Amino acid sequence: MKISIVAVNSVNGLISRDSDYDVDWSSPDDRKFFKKITTSAGVVIFGRRTFETIGKPLPKRLNVILTRTPEKFHSTENLLFTNDEPEILISKIGRLGFKHIVIGGGREIYTLFLKNKLVTDIYLSIEPIILKGKVTMLNVEELNNDIRLELEELLKLSKNTLVVHYTIPENRVRELFSP
């Protein structure tokens, strides 16, 4: 099982100006990359606030929304609201036949999966903008330890947009999914 964080950052390390998680500043190239990787995976996990910012389920993908109150929402064929713990959730998704899960945001969800060592890859788009804002990708105070990454590849999406792909060798995904 591959579990990837896919995020876009400004040059100064922000994912949003404020807690609305609006990413109106990302490039068409980044949005195209996000669509390609999430469509290929077939499943994407969002936090409720990030999902509400998007406003609707992404087509041709299972959209899993982590929320403390799933009973307040209506799940459909490609939209699942849940408060499952990350390990339980990825097991359920794996049993549905998915081999790749994308964590699409936001900050709380990225931190939760990294804290639980349930991330194998990070795809970090870097956009050429310095944002006036305050929302960083992670709440590092919640992490248990430093997390070492290995550079897998560097992709140039356009003249100005890069994607840095890291792998995380120390994760629990193999132990959860080995026979």
UniProtKB/TrEMBL annotation:
The keyword Protease does not apply. Keywords: NADP, One-carbon metabolism, Oxidoreductase. Pathway: Cofactor biosynthesis; tetrahydrofolate biosynthesis; 5,6,7,8-tetrahydrofolate from 7,8-dihydrofolate: step 1/1. Residues 1-179 form the DHFR domain. It holds the Pfam family DHFR_1. Its EC number is 1.5.1.3. One of its GO terms (molecular function) is NADP binding. GO terms for biological process: dihydrofolate metabolic process; folic acid metabolic process; one-carbon metabolic process; tetrahydrofolate biosynthetic process. GO terms for cellular component: cytosol. It is an enzyme of class 1 (oxidoreductase). Belongs to the dihydrofolate reductase family. This is dihydrofolate reductase. It comes from Kosmotoga olearia (strain ATCC BAA-1733 / DSM 21960 / TBF 19.5.1).
